[in-house]
Amino acid sequence: MAPPRAPLPATKYFWGDSPEPDEHYASLGLRHTESYYQSPCGRLFTHSFHPLSAAHDGDVKAVVFMTHGYGSDTSWLFQYIAISYAQWGYAVYCADLLGHGRSDGIHGYLGDMESVARASMSFFLSVRKTTAYAPLPAFLLGESMGGAATLLMYLRSPPDAGWTGIIFSGPLFLIPEKMYPSRLRLFLYGLLLGFADTWAVLPDKRMVVKAIRDPEKLKVIASNPMRYCGAPRVGTMRELARITELLQESFGEVTVPFLALHGTDDGVAAPEGSKMLYERAPSEDKSLIMYEGMYHSLIQGEPDESRDRVLADMRAWIDERVRRYGSAAVPAPA
């Protein structure tokens, strides 16, 4: 049986039925592009955002590469993060993960996080090493499961990647016990030698409801036509359980400056995961902010007042790191 589809969107775009995209982004002071990128692991759908004030691509403070969470994509409310950074004077690039949005792969399937991370990292590095951006600071940003993918990208990056820092928003480093997939089910499906890997048969445990605190924003997120609405696939949950354990074992390798942000009432990604990263990482420039009473989706799902508080913390952190480390950049290609 095919998984249920998302409800028809109440509006054409997440901002409404009008204006059309070019006019909408211009009204925000931004230049926006969409394109496909052929990675070694599959084709990715990508976005870029630049302030209109930038005379050319490199005429910005820094470049930020963003990764969305499980079941989401980069064309709906996730764009609020990208738009905010671009309005602060940053170039922003993001891509739908494999198995998500308009990128290649079985919808909602993340059977190999190494390939998922490698695909996005290929795109990010192809931009990062261009003449326009090589002299600039470069940051990674990951939300939710995208935080896990982002940390994996950092750990697998070549030595000359030149990442200046990482921002994590509600990163999935530790699965809460109530959300953890049944070990017995994973074992039994595993006996089928991979045949069940793409089956959408595991309980979803109402992940979206546990992530979004603002009921009106929940309606907008639920109306995203590209959102994966089926039950979690066997291979996805198996792989997320594996990768979170691997990342916890790798926290001691994180030396880059980072900011971890987490709501104390996050029911999807345990706040203890961000605390573990902060405690174990040897980075000499690390920050952890816990938001009392906030849920999982700090930007897309909180009331405006709470969302704006998180964005202000993000902006203060990245602006300061650009000031501190702005001269540390990758050599421009010959």
Automatic annotation (TrEMBL):
Residues 59-303 form the Serine aminopeptidase S33 domain. Pfam families: Hydrolase_4. InterPro entries: AB_hydrolase_1, AB_hydrolase_fold, Hydrolase_4, MAG_DAG_Lipase. This is Serine aminopeptidase S33 domain-containing protein. It comes from Lolium multiflorum (Italian ryegrass).
